[in-house]
Specification:
mainly alpha, 5 helices, 74% helix
Length: 97
């Protein structure tokens, strides 16, 4: 096959262009669903951040379960949010999970 035939064949393969129409209503629904999900996550994070935890409780969980301080603090905050507020409950949740 000569160079001209190869170029023509390459052009025939690469000339296909498909323009797909985007359904604007579906796109806007998807974007609103994403923003709603992000808002729920932000609300939960704000609620967890408002809870104070004892440094001694964090240190106990870190030393006994060998997890990072961030993981221990989050477990304590989540147990406080669930109205448990008990270091034993937090430790058990971490062991089970």
């Amino acid at each position: 096959m000569d160079a001209e035939a190869e170029a023509k064949q390459l052009d025939s393969v690469t000339d296909v262009v498909k323009d797909d129409e985007i359904d604007e209503s579906a796109a806007s629904k998807a974007m609103s669903a994403l923003s709603t999900a992000n808002g729920e996550i932000d609300h939960e994070s704000a609620a967890l951040a408002a809870i104070t935890v004892s440094k001694e409780d964090v240190a106990l969980i870190v030393s006994e379960l060998e997890v990072t301080e961030e993981v221990a603090e989050r477990a304590l905050r989540e147990s406080s949010l669930a109205n448990e507020g008990n270091i034993v409950e937090s430790a058990l949740r971490m062991l089970i999970a």
